[in-house]
């Protein structure tokens, strides 16, 4: 890691530094030949991920970014040139809380005079689908936060996150399942032609944040659409099968069967179901392509095949 402590370098404050996206931002900025100071925020500076970052030169600071802690937020943004924000809907499943906390953070960063605010947003699916899919709260809330950030007057960039490659390895209902003859089936309620901007988030998401900071094509007011590779679910499964040597087939199942198979609480299963249907019908990025966002990256991203090759599938394809 080459993170500087020199006060002439811009200070980047990273929310969610111990997580997939925030950690990736640190990795990408440390790879840059431009110097950065990095302040990483976590609720627990003693956790292993925070200790590792501190050992690499990140100033780790403990703060809980909750709506009742605006004073704490203002304090940790003092002196910041750039702020990166990701919110974690899945920790609490409360979209009102996600939106309220993000608004508080944007206000605090603005009060601190931050010059560039980089937000990890998503599309508002309820809006893009004209109300057809109203329950994808982790997208809709982030769409609302994007609107608030843009209207706030703070220099604001939306670096939307693609579909995590690890979803196919970690999430219930998204993993291939073993069937009686010893082969595997990935069963989802959409067609195999459904296209996803798949990204190896810890490795590559931060590259796009670095691009937003360093490339004159981006910056305040812009939008960056992240993706390691835009690939159909059918092609992902064929490649997974070919690379691992396991027979894996794709199967389209009914909405009802998918909902049951996830094993998730009904409201969460509905959210996942609607998001998949939306990706199939409207496109993950509402029909916008990722090509322009990939043009000024400092290094190539990992493809789905690269991710598959670098991942231990033994627990999934047991
Ligand atoms: N899965 C996908 O395909 C996908 C695609 C696009 C977007 N997303 C979005 O990605 C988001 C999750 O990002 P991630 O994967 O980077 O999460 P993650 O790996 O679970 O990390 C969450 C980070 O947020 C920090 N954090 C959470 N609440 C906090 C609070 N109140 N105050 C301070 N820090 C707090 C955590 O810090 P500590 O725990 O260290 O305190 C941690 O560093 C979700 O909102 C999801 O909707 C996911």
From TrEMBL:
GO cellular component, one term: nucleus
CDD domains xref list: NmrA_like_SDR_a
Molecular function GO labels: oxidoreductase activity
Keywords, sorted A to Z: NADP, Oxidoreductase
Domain of life: Eukaryota
This protein's record includes keyword Oxidoreductase: yes
InterPro entries for the chain: NAD(P)-bd_dom_sf (IPR036291), NmrA-like (IPR008030), NmrA-like_oxidored (IPR051164)
Keyword Ligase applies: no
Limits of the NmrA-like domain: 11-297
Family from the record: Belongs to the NmrA-type oxidoreductase family.
The protein, known as: NmrA domain-containing protein
Organism: Mycena venus
